[in-house]
Every structure is written in structure tokens, then in C-alpha cells.
Amino acid sequence: MSARLCVCVCLCPFVFPAFDYGFLLRISEDARRVEALNEYLSSRSYLAGYGPSQADAEAFALLCGPPPERHVHALRWYKHIAALNHLGVSCFSAKGKRVQPPWSPPEGTDVSKLRLYNSLTRTKEVFVPQKGNRVLWYCCGPTVYDASHMGHARSYISFDILRRILKDYFKYDVFYCMNITDIDDKIIKRARQNYLLEQYREKKPSPSQILQDVLTARTPFKAKLAETTDPDKKQMLERLDAAVEAALGPLQVAVQSNAAGDALQNQAQVLLEEAKDLLSDWLDSQFGSQVTENSIFSLLPKYWEGEYHKDMEALNVLPPDVLTRVSEYVPEIVAFVKRIVDNGYGYESNGSVYFDTAKFDSCPAHSYAKLVPEAVGDQKALQEGEGDLSISADRLNEKRSQNDFALWKASKPGEPSWDSPWGKGRPGWHIECSAMAGSILGESMDIHGGGFDLRFPHHDNELAQSEAYFENDYWVRYFLHTGHLTIAGCKMSKSLKNFITIKDALAKHTARQLRLAFLMHSWKDTLDYSNNTMESAIQYERFINEFFLNVKDVLRSPTDITGQFEKWEAEEIELNKSFYEKKTSVHEALCDNIDTRSALEEMRALVGQSNTYMAARRSAKLPPNRMLLQGIALYLTNMLKVARQKSSYIEQKLKQWMNIEVLCDELRDDTLPELGVRLEDRDGLPTSVKLVDKETLLKEREEKKKVIAESIYMAMAKLAKMKVKPSEMFRSETDKYSIFDEMGFPTHDAEGKELSKGLTKKLRKLYEAQEKLYNEYLQSTQNGS
């Protein structure tokens, strides 16, 4: 027979295993029974505060009375149980001993867990870092050969938002690594073409030579145009061809007519500028193989990387903790490729090394194309992944399977090269991320990020070669892919003339407005960059900023140290309840795949409720609760990462003016806007003082002046009209009327025909209206106004 004895060890309460007191039943003598119980309890100790269990009651009933004092443990236990059960044994006073009642912890509620949409499962998964609070994150960076555009911004602003929220809100220790691709087929081709075109310009060819070369270059260009099937690319090439055609004609005429030197040179330079792209292609096909100096291929990416960093700084995107460049990791890439070959997943062919997808996929521990398995065999995507310079027939025939991809490419003439066990060559595209990420983050990372269009083949190939290197199946735990970006509903394309660089976007909108636009959309879905999108962001910014200005005005009102703590009435209690409900809703939204769109809507609702509260207090001529509004504003500030204005000379000077009810117009309209200060009059309350950025106030001042000027003009025009006598108003319109009655009212048109009844009725209304205006004017002059 067994039960449980409720006891406690020193500081931490717990219940011992089942107390088998059957041994007490086997002892018939009371003294021996007490002695056995004391020995049993000597290995246990307990404190008061627990209710007796069934085991306590049944063991207690076996004893005839309190144990002798020499049996300390048995006696202590006996007194404890007796007191708790109020048994009134003779050794206690009549009152008994009062003890604490039992305590039970609250049931609590379920705590929301962060879930992220994982491309590896295509569903939202609970986010669990591999090592405690530490998050290892790798993000695919840009291929730097041209200006960064809004498509780049889509990824890098979105990942910056996710990174900041994981780090600053969820308090993860994020280690963020990003690469720069500065060795790539596009970079090689663009750098080579730029170099050759510059060399061509430096030779200063004659107008006739430029004409001849462009005509020659146009032949393969026309063939390329005819073969192009992609609508956007075809449209772009057709536009280029039309521009060249337009520039060719004048130069041909000028050459044939032996035009003057300056005119001829000007026409030649116009053609050279319009035809530079097709001329570069032609020069590359003729002389590209002669470009051998590696430094030629480094200048272009170095310049555009610098421009990229400037753009990111302008967008307020945090720099990575570690930045890796392909050109600096060639030895590590060579070693990475070698190990893949040694592990049996790669093979050499004509100086290049390819990944054996069939061998990898046949291994029970591995699986190829985890992200987009349905894309296996998509030759167009695979060839785009290999690069423009690597899809020639001879290169494609080097592979065992069309699904295999290059780990290391044998360099051809006109390409940069590095030493390797397989000869001179350069890294494949996919291998760079695996080698660099592996070098910094090791065999497994928590998060890998990139654009949606990188899933296949780039990221699937990264996964395969990395897991082939490390011989594991968990190189990436969570794969995050940002959604596409469209421009007013269309794909961004130079051919559609909607190609927007980051600098273009920043010329129209601030970095904060762009970030708000991104926050108002899901990071993983398509974002449409349009006037409507940006207008929504601007309106949200104004709405929030105006709230902050109103709260600052409330907090700026003078009060003593105790006056800031005001009694809470029903309105404050209700607003505070809403405040905590909204905080909970925001948290749940952020836990749900970092849903910033829903979070911002909850914050908008909170601001709306706060504004309603402040308006009600103003209507009642009562000050709003400072501490409550300050708490809401600080919360919103932290969530939005809005830079709060620090106490400045302006604010210090404002403190001296707080009790001034009326300021002169010059100070209000001219001086204060230059300082970034706006005054707003409030009925029955002190003037509101708000700190706003200077540019906004100056713009407001100009708009106000414009409105005033228009008002004055309208007033002057009205006054001038009022001064006209009704009898004179039509007499000046001799182009319309020829005969008037004694009151100056027209009766015949300019041709002498009598006016129709309808027109006469219309003119009569105008006459009577003017008569009324003129009488008002006479009345005002008589009153001296």
C-alpha cells in the first residue's frame, strides 16, 4: 500500500516519491513503530505551508500520540500534520498555530512563438536557432557591374528590416555575412567591352571610319535582333536599332557631301554615342580574346561596389558584420572544389570542374533541388545560371549531364584566371557563396537569404555543393526569399523605360518613406512600386509624425515633478487597455512571419485612439495624461525606429516662451520656421509649439503665402467688380452688344439683332447681381469701412 507524503526541501518545494508506510503496519509495538518512523523521516525535511495528503493522514492515524522528544523528526512531522489538520492534540495550546494557506501558480496563456516562412518547406516554421540565442545569417549580395536599382532595394531593405527586428525586437544575437560578386560572366564581358570601347575612342577614328565600323557592327546586331524571342529584350534592341538608324542617315549625307570638318565630327560623335552598345559587342567579338590583364576586370566591380555601398548608406541599410568578395577568396574556393571532387561529387573535364548532380541525388543522405524540385531539367534556367560566357556548345558537351553545373571554369582567352589543380581558371557562380559562407559560418547556418528568383538554380546548387562538401543535409536551416518588385504593375525593364535606380528613387522620396512602403507590404510577396504605394507611405508618415508632434507639445507644457503623475480616470484606463491590446496584436503580427504590414495597421489604430483621447480632453479644456501618452509615443518610436529629436538650443529657447500667448506675426511666420518651429493656436488652451524639420515648414510657409496672395487677389478683384455701376457693366462689351436702354442694359447684339428672350433673362440675372454688389459697396463706403 502506498501514497504520497507532502514535504519540502529547504528552499525549493517538491513532492517525494510514493511513501510506502506498509512497514509501520508490520510493527505492533508503538515505541518501535515511532522509532522506525523517525529513522525514515531523518533523511527528509520539510517546512510548514503544505496541506496534509492522504498518506500523512493514514500514517498519522497509526500513532497513539505525539512521539517522544528524542525522536525529533517524527515529533516535528507529527506537530506539523496535527496543526494543519487542526486535530487539537494535547501538546498544543487551545488556539493552535496559524499557517499559510496552499498556493497555486496561475495557469497562464500560450506565448506566441516566432514563425518564419521557410522556402525549404514552403510553410511557416517555428524559428529555433541552432545554438541558443546566436543566429548565423548569410545573404547573397549584388553582382557589381552596374547601378543598383529598386530590385536590389527590394531585397536589401527587406532583409535589413528582418535583421533589425530579429536583433532589436526579438533580441537575437545576429551575425550577418554578405558577399560581393566581383568575378562573373557579366562583369567580365562588361569590363572587357568598356576597355575596348575606350581604346577605340582614344584612337580618334575618322568620321568615315566610325561610319564603316558601325555599319559592319550592325550586321551581327541585326542577326541577334532577329533571333531574340524575349519580348522585353527584343523591344530594347529594336529601340537601340532605331536610334542607330536615326544617327546613321545624317552622317552618311555629311560624308557624301564632304561637309565641313566640325559638322562632320559632330555627326560622327552622335552616331558613336548612339551605337556604343552594338559597337562594343562587335569590338569584343573581334578583339576580346586579346584582353588578358586581370586588373582590367577589377576596376569595374570596384567602382560599382563603391556606388552600391553609398546607396545602402543612403537607404539606412546596416552594413554586414562580414563582407566577402569572390576575388579575395579564390584559394578557399579552389580548396572547396577539391574537397567536393575528393568526396566523389565532382569531376574534371577539359580543365573545368563540374558538379555531378546524379551522383549526389542518388546518395541516400542527399537530395538535389530541395527548394524547387520541379525545376530540375529546366535548361533555360540552368544556362542562365552558368553565365553568358559558359554556354557554348563545347562547354555544354563537357558535362556528363545537362543538369550538372560548373564549380570551376577553365578560363578562355580574354578572361581573368587563377591557378588551380586543374589549370588556369576562375570560380563558377554558385560555388562562391558556398565557399565564403562555409569559411565564415561553418558547416551550418540558421538563415540564408536572397531574392525569389535565386531559388533555382543558384540556391539549390549552393545547397547541393555545400552539403557535398560537409557531407551533411542541414547546411541551411531556414531559407528566406524576398518577393519580386514591379513598377506600376509591370516588370522593371530598360526596354519599358521603367528602370529605376536607387538614386532615382531617392531623388523623389526619402529613405524613410521608401522603408515605410516596404514595411506596409509582406517581405515575401510581390511589392508594386507605384505612385499609389508611395502616397500611402507618405500619408502614414505624416499621420505618425503629427502624433509625435502633438505628444511632444503635451510633454513640453510646464509642470512640477509631481504634477506629471495625474490621476487616471475612465478614459485613461480605457486607452491604456487599448494600448496593451495593440502591443499584443503587434507582437503576434511580428511572430507571424514578421508581418510588418499588420503591425503597422495595429500601430495606426493605436495612434487613432490616442488622437481621439487627446481631442476629447481638449474639448473638455482638460490636459491629457502626460505619462500615458509618453509611454505610447516611446513604444511607437522604438517600434518604428524613428530618430527622436534631442533637446537642442531651439527647445531650450522655447522653454522661455512657453507662457507667451500671442507672438508677433514676424516671429511666427518668418523667424520660427527658419528654426524648425511651428505654432498652432488652440481654442481656450495654450498655443501648441511643435518642432518640425525646417524644409517642411518653409514649404508650408510658401504655400501659406501663395494662399494669402490668391486670397488678396480674389478680394481685390471682387472689390474692383463691386465698384462697377450696373449701368456700365455691359457698355464696354461692344463686340457683343450694339444698343442699350437708359439703364445700360443691352437690347441688341453686335450685328443689330434683338436679343433672344433666353439671353435677355440670363443677362438680367447678371445685371441684378451686379446691382446688389454695387449697393454693398456704396453701403460700405458710407460706413467708413
UniProtKB/TrEMBL annotation:
Gene Ontology cellular-component terms listed: cytoplasm
Keyword Ligase recorded: yes
An individual GO BP term: cysteinyl-tRNA aminoacylation
Pfam families xref list: tRNA-synt_1e
UniProt cofactor(s): Zn(2+)
Sequence ranges assigned to domain tRNA synthetases class I catalytic in this UniProt record: 127-537
Keyword Aminoacyl-tRNA synthetase included in the entry's annotation: yes
EC numbers for this chain: 6.1.1.16
Localization in the cell: Cytoplasm
Known catalytic reactions: tRNA(Cys) + L-cysteine + ATP = L-cysteinyl-tRNA(Cys) + AMP + diphosphate
SUPFAM superfamilies membership: Anticodon-binding domain of a subclass of class I aminoacyl-tRNA synthetases (SSF47323), GST C-terminal domain-like (SSF47616), Nucleotidylyl transferase (SSF52374)
InterPro entries in the record: Cys-tRNA-ligase (IPR015803), Cys-tRNA/MSH_ligase (IPR024909), Glutathione-S-Trfase_C_sf (IPR036282), Rossmann-like_a/b/a_fold (IPR014729), tRNA-synt_1_cat_dom (IPR032678), tRNAsynth_Ia_anticodon-bd (IPR009080)
Entry keywords, A to Z: Aminoacyl-tRNA synthetase, ATP-binding, Cytoplasm, Ligase, Metal-binding, Nucleotide-binding, Protein biosynthesis, Signal, Zinc
Molecular function as annotated in GO: ATP binding; cysteine-tRNA ligase activity; metal ion binding
Signal peptide, first to last residue: 1-17
The protein's assembly and partners: Homodimer.
Function: Catalyzes the ATP-dependent ligation of cysteine to tRNA(Cys).
Protein's UniProt name: Cysteine--tRNA ligase, cytoplasmic
Organism in which the protein naturally occurs: Cyprinus carpio (Common carp)
Upper classification of the organism: Eukaryota, Metazoa, Chordata, Craniata, Vertebrata
